[in-house]
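Task card 7
Instruction: Convert sequence to structure tokens.
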Amino acid sequence: MEGNGNKSPRSPARRSGVTTLEDVAQAAGVTRMTVSRVISGKGHASAATQEKILRIAAELNYTANQAAIALTTGRTGNIAIIGGRLNRHYYTNIVQHLESQLNASGYQMKLLYTRSDLKELVLAINSAVVDGVIIVDQFNLVEEFRFRKPQFSQPCVYIDAVKYQGVDCVHNNVRPAFTQALEHIISLGRKRIAYASNSRDSLVIFNTEQRRQIYLAFMGAKGLEPEFISARPDLESLEERIQAVKEHIQKSGCPEAIVCKNDEIALLVCRAVLDAGYRISEDVVLLGCDGLPFMT
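Output:
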């Protein structure tokens, strides 16, 4: 016969293969409420009791029912992220950093991919879907989110180059750095400075495109003529977009400097400039903006 040494708790008989709070409570010799408080981190229990309950829960392969916890505590442990397309390195980079920080703080990331995902979130009634929302650089979605359900109770934070009034916003102010870079280009004696972006309309100034506004104000203050290059996001392939930039250069001549809305456009422009037979730095000063890892 076996001795009376330390033994793992005997798994209680269960009708299903899923371990419940009652199973853990029975094996630990405590109440269901005590187990619930320890598992959820609420209430008080001695260190010895907490250690015993958590050990037995692990031995019985207990997994907390997140839906039940959400109903009990009003918390899901999920944070929704609304951003741009993940085939753009800028958004991929931000999502990666956000997920790392959220996980370190004990949260899980719920990434919303489509407009229907957003609609499902904001129209959810009497149910805890997420504990908060982070919206990255999506002006139109921001407005839709705010006006669809202004009484939405979960905390919401916006990350953008634009400041929104009356909401929590992490403002990415690129003006000082962007202006300094333009001043440096002027100091190099470059006068013909073009701006490359995704826009096909050189006359439209979008409220959310801060870098375009900075460029236009700078060129006006220096008495220089602005020039716009479209990276043609409407084209299907990168090669077609590169060719579109190359055709602009071949038709109008190559600018002495090209400032780009972001690093991804800078990569397209770089290819187009080189394919057109010009040298970066010697012939054309090229400026990107985002600080993505692969650009350093």
